[in-house]
Amino acid sequence: MGYNVAIDGPAGAGKSTIAKLLAKEKGYIYVDTGALYRGLAIHFLDRSINAQDIGAVIEAVKEADVKIKYEDGAQQVYLNGRNITERLRGEEVGRMASATAKIPEVRDKLLMLQRNLAAEQDVVMDGRDIGTCVLPDAEVKIFLTASVKTRARRRYEELTGKGESCDLETIEEDIKKRDEQDMTRKTAPLKKAEDAYLVDSSDMTVEEVVRTIAALCKS
């Protein structure tokens, strides 16, 4: 049986960054569930599917094969045999992933892969509903959050650091909309598990967040 750490939280809270560092420090495998949903989002976008066309999304899911592989210690995401890792962080991809993640058939497609990995390995898994739905029996559950302004600023700095043109106010509004969408969806909404530790990183460094969570895990 694997030892599981579940990290949930809203968009831009730094879940992926923290989960990767925590996994490296503890010697666990990092599983970026958001990347899996983004992989499916790329599948939908490449087929010019509208997220509101549920029937088209359900049909397209049947043709998608998303897999995680570890190459030179880094997680790579493959879609139908193609490495799509470099495309995962696009804003359009994020919006499509958020809009389609509420569809049961999309979630079912990825749920078994996530649980199989967690059953076989010590993992750190981050997403929106890991502690509540995907790994309800995880040994450690974290709800990682930060203020909307903090999350928007972090995303802005990330994008501008890559040379991308973006607007801080637009990013902030997008985060607010995604929070509302994630928290109000009928299927597996974003919420803190009752037994999860709340970690607000608004005024914490990355190192402080990692130390805080690491202290809750087995040595």
| SS class | alpha/beta
Distance from N terminus to C terminus (CA atoms, Å) equals 17 Å
CATH architecture: 3-Layer(aba) Sandwich
User: What strand order characterises the main sheet?
Assistant: 2-6-1-7-8
Q: Give the low-confidence spans.
A: none
Number of domains: 1
Helix content: 40-55%
What is the strand tally?
8
CATH class: Alpha Beta
Condensed summary:
With 219 residues, the protein is of the alpha/beta class. It is built from 9 helices and 8 strands.
Secondary structure: elements and pairs:
Layout: E1 4-8, H1 15-26, E2 29-32, H2 33-46, H3 54-61, E3 66-71, E4 74-79, E5 82-83, H4 91-100, H5 104-120, E6 123-127, H6 130-134, E7 140-145, H7 148-161, H8 168-184, E8 197-200, H9 206-214
Parallel strand pairs: 1-6, 1-7, 2-6, 7-8
Antiparallel strand pairs: 3-4, 4-5
What would you note in describing this structure?
By secondary structure, the protein is an alpha/beta fold. The protein has one domain (about 5-215): P-loop containing nucleotide triphosphate hydrolases (Rossmann fold), CATH 3.40.50.300. It is about 50% helix and about 15% strand. The chain has nine helices and eight strands. It has helices at about 15-25, 35-45, 55-60, 90-100, 105-120, 130-135, 150-160, 170-185, 205-215, and strands at about 5-10, 30, 65-70, 75-80, 80-85, 125, 140-145, 195-200. The strands form two sheets. The chain has a five-stranded parallel β-sheet with strand order 2-6-1-7-8, sandwiched between helices. Strand 4 and strand 5 form a beta hairpin. The chain is globular.
Features:
alpha/beta; Rossmann fold; five-stranded parallel sheet; three-stranded antiparallel sheet; 9 helices; 8 strands
